[in-house]
Give the backbone structure.
Amino acid sequence: MRYDILVKVSLYLLLSLLCVSAQAADYVNGELFLEVNLASGDHIRFKPVSSSNPSFTVTEESLPVVRDVLGEITVGVVSGNGISYWGILKSAEPWSEQEEGYKREYFAWQDSCLVIKRENLIFEDTSFTAPDAAKSYIKANRIPESKLMNIPLINSTVSIISANGDQLYCETPLKIHTDTPVSLSGSDLAYSGDFIVKCVNGQLVINHFLPLEEYVGGVIQNEIGNNAPLEALKAQAVSARTHAISLLLYNRHKDDGYDLCNSTHCQVYKGKYLLNDAILQAVSETKDQIMTYQGKVIDATYSSCCGGKTDSSQNIWNGLPKPYLMGSVCIPEAGNYDLSLEKQAREWIDSSIGFSGMSSWEQKSLSWRASISRYSLASNLGLGYVNRIVIAKRGYSGRITDMYFLGSGTVHLTSEYKIRQAFGGTKSSFFYITGEYSQDGNGNVTVYPHNTMFLRGRGSGHGVGMCQVGTLRRARMGEDYQKILTLYYPGIDFVSNWKHDAR
Ligand SMILES: [Zn+2]
Ligand SMILES: [Zn+2]
């Protein structure tokens, strides 16, 4: 069969045979369980992290037979497998068990509850086995690209090879369970419990299937440090949980075979083996709590250190203003400065502040220095040389959000992240370049850079929402987590009765 040419098959026939489903999150006994992606690839090895001999139980979704495998295992896609089709979406109808088709799930916020919606995707009769052919077809027929979808054939065969060479063939999706801590494909992190194996786009996808509360524990230990005071851990638990729910509502991984990825794209998740008692206590004492604003889940974004004041989401990412993300005074002394003005931003950065009990990363996030050569700056911007820099705007937190670089050409950056990258990856864009500057009537600040530029700055990260350094400081002063969170997200409510089983 030639797969590189346009192949027309009747998707109706195909789907009526398969009745495929890309099921991910679920409510189990009233708890929300998530699929968090841990690895993907052609072959994935489950290796015990200690010398113990693990035992795995393997269950296929379509076959209620449990099989046991002893020792290290490698899961692989069986060759010739994993063909997926490219279909053109006709419509999405509500799912009913009687119907056949491609079931897709997504999250929605309805009547102050998180519901899992199921829909049946109906495709046009024409489909393709090669993405290029599909793309030319929709271009020629003026069909919007958003209608083109990859339809994974979920029922793929995978092999499970044990350490002694025994092979087991299974149909996906399948569940692998082990109580022994195992690492996946050489990662140094250990996981145990339930793993879901799927084939998406011809590739294996391995997900951790776990309750939301366990996931929150595995996120916060990475975020705010194991030795943080309890109220700071609780604030981080509520932010991470809220952030997870809002990520689910964005449905960014709807077509990927999982709910959340384990990297910074969603939230970094490192499993349960780095947890301590304080983290478990913080998670259980805030169980199910999330933050809402006027009945809707908030964007509980957070960053390492604001540097004095947090910024508004609109200054940093554009978009519509969010009343609970307008910027707050984190360090009271910073309230005496208008950090959007160059002179006052410099004065605040140069003022001395110190708090007792701060760890070295907190101090380094709060106040920092850096340097970069004029040559490196130009090269980072793709310019031959730079001889004039214009700061056109600083946000409420003092972060530079609009900057021009003039030299062999002109580069205009309007993102704090890109500005940080241009200067070699500074901790934040709240900094100034030491030396002379001039200012015009519109407040534009011009700097003529020396061959080496010395930067002085405050803060680390985008500075929108909860400030982790500020949270730690307030928790040490005895503030409770709800008071802390209300400072960073004014006007919010704490709710815990948002779980809803849609079926
Ligand atoms: Zn993600
Ligand atoms: Zn702060």
